[in-house]
Design goal:
It is globular and about 55 Å long. By secondary structure, it is of the alpha/beta class. The longest helix is centred in the first third of the chain and has 20 residues, at about 100-120. About 35% of the residues lie in helices and about 15% in strands. About 40% of the residues are buried. The N and C termini lie far apart (about 45 Å). Strand 9, helix 10 (about 285-295) and strand 10 (about 305-310) form a beta-alpha-beta unit. The chain has a seven-stranded parallel β-sheet with strand order 3-4-2-1-9-10-11, with helices on both faces. Strands 6-7-5-8 form a four-stranded antiparallel β-sheet.
């Protein structure tokens, strides 16, 4: 039996509340923001009519809830993902087969636009970022935005998007993918040198260098570097961003990022200190809950500390009940720029 690794790593697990503190939309705001985007901007590159398309989907999938009903984002993504898997193409079914794809592009557009507004502030003194963005540390996140990657570039911190046990760089593990990632089958450009970054590449802001993309199925575009044109870069690089939806039972969709989930389990097994920041531990997110529990319980040595930073008391209770009993609580709100 393989020995469990030593617990000597400082890890940060980030949820939507972290990005919200820095000015990006949280999960609950996404559908309303997409409707606003559709109403206010007809040149953003997907479909100016997506607001009406969403309304049609609400009426189709939620027939008893009235015309002005707007579903919770998680539940709506679950419905669309499920229907895409089992119902698309059925006679007299919901006919808008590209809605989920276009919704991902709409969310990417919003995130890129909002990211421009906060870019300069990522270099400002911030105790949380100052502590987090250090070589040898690991950030695990469920967020689609590239806030952490952009902060690293602005601050001159080398980083990787896969685990390499490299003490000279920060590791960022994105469990749900990212607005600037694409699968090979959806790539718009040749799958080779200079068009995409491999996830395993070391990104050194002082001397960016990468090899040609291998046969692996995931890579990222140059949106993080070309931040002023982030959405245009994404739109020109992929037919569909790789963004796992916050759907229930998403384990069936994890395949393309299974290596990243395995990396996350490995590094959680190495956690000496784990900070869970802005993540609400929803009851239906069994995959992440299981990942956290399994990593923290591996081996015979416990972490020195597990701290939850969240102003909502029920989140702390869920962590103690479902993941790790000896939790330290910090009820402070996450402080952004």
């Amino acid at each position: 039996m393989a020995r469990s690794p030593a617990r000597n790593t400082q890890i940060y697990f980030l949820g939507a509340g972290f990005s919200k503190a820095f000015g990006l939309p949280n999960t609950a705001e996404l559908l309303s923001r997409v409707h606003s985007l559709s109403n206010g901007n007809h040149h953003w590159g997907v479909s100016a009519d997506i607001g009406n398309r969403l309304e049609a989907a609400y009426q189709y999938f939620y027939p008893d809830d009235g015309k002005n009903f707007q579903p919770p984002v998680g539940g709506f993504f679950t419905v669309l993902s499920t229907y895409e898997s089992i119902g698309s193409g059925l006679p007299q079914g919901f006919s808008d087969s590209s809605l989920l794809r276009d919704l991902k592009f709409a969310i990417a557009s919003i995130i890129c636009s909002d990211s421009k507004q906060i870019d300069k502030e990522l270099t400002c003194e911030n105790p949380l970022l100052d502590d987090m963005l250090q070589p040898g540390h690991v950030v695990i996140t469920s967020n689609w935005d590239y806030l952490i990657e952009r902060a690293c570039i602005r601050r001159g911190v080398p980083f990787r998007l896969q685990w390499a046990n490299d003490l000279s760089a920060l590791t960022i593990l994105k469990l749900h993918g990212s607005v600037d990632w694409t699968e090979k089958k959806y790539a718009k450009k040749p799958w080779g040198l200079r068009n995409y970054f491999r996830l395993e590449d070391l990104i050194n802001p002082r001397r960016q260098r990468h090899d040609s993309v291998s046969s692996k199925h995931l890579a990222r575009s140059h949106a993080v570097e070309n931040w002023t044109r982030g959405y245009q870069v994404i739109k020109g690089s992929t037919h569909q961003p790789f963004m796992l939806t916050m759907a229930r039972a998403k384990s069936m969709s994890i395949g393309p990022v299974m290596a990243i989930w395995s990396d996350a389990y490995d590094v959680l097994s190495r956690a000496d200190r784990l900070s869970i920041i802005g993540y609400s531990i929803p009851d239906d997110d069994v995959e992440i809950r299981t990942l956290l529990r399994a990593g923290l319980c591996r081996g015979t040595k416990n972490p020195t500390s597990v701290i939850v930073i969240n102003p909502e008391p029920s989140v702390h209770e869920r962590v103690r009940r479902q993941i790790y009993r000896e939790v330290e609580s910090d009820y402070s709100a996450v402080r952004g720029p």
